[in-house]
Design brief:
The chain has nine helices and ten strands. It is an alpha/beta fold and 306 residues long.
Amino acid sequence: MSVLDAIGNTPMFELRRIVRPGSARVMVKLESANPTGSMKDRMARAAIESAEADGRLTPGGTVVEYTGGTTGISLAFICAAKGYNSRIVFSDAFSTEKELMMKALGAEITIVPSFGRGITEKLIKEMIEKARIISLRPKHWWSDQLNNRDAIKGYYPLGEEVWKQSDGRVNAFVHAVGTAHSIHGTTEALWEHNRDIQIVAVEPAESAVLSGHPAGAHNIEGIGIGFVPPLWEPDRVTQILTISTGEAKEMARRLAREEGIFAGTSSGANVVAALRVAQTLGSRATVVTIIVDSGLRYLSTDVFRL
């Protein structure tokens, strides 16, 4: 056994107090129960172990990535457990807790300044380029999350867990899009069981590029990169819903107060969207969504400063 064996097999349970009467059952997968407190532990392990297997990452090597923090934390965690170094490109647009946690796990951080702490296409592309340049150094491997198909494999078990924990009674899966790996990997597993399951993607209303609107600045960390992700597969999505930063933050607060679930803003966006789908499907259906990470990562932001 190692600490990596604690990844996955997270609990799933039904929301009790915020679902409107007459709506579908809404179940949430508590991915904050993973070792670092987020679902990204799954993809980080899959990406690194694939790179180990084919020799792209060698003993004593350094993993490089650009990140809003959650992926960086998970990569730093896997690197610490396996004995690799990690170099993370980050920005002040994201929470201080994420930077501190990556440093605690041994990561070396490079900061790309934002404009007004907004998450924009320009910022993300500057971070990507900085990571690319760093990765040119000897024994440095760039995991390049947006283009890394191995990362998708880490979410196949998530889909299997959702199927089993819902007793095969899932009618819709609702999830926010960053790289798109988690929604596509989970869908792959779910559709192996039932191709009729609806897949609902979620993106920030202020930067709804998947819906064909212009990119803009928002503050839902971890999603909405301002351009269509390279590995985005629109044919694997039934519907796209847009959620504003304000709605996502308010739902994060409600989840804490009314359900005892301490989660971040992308989780808030997931639940807002899941509640909308639940109203549409009616009381005989089951909707599943993801609690992506813990609210502990957002205490320095305005989400919980009431």
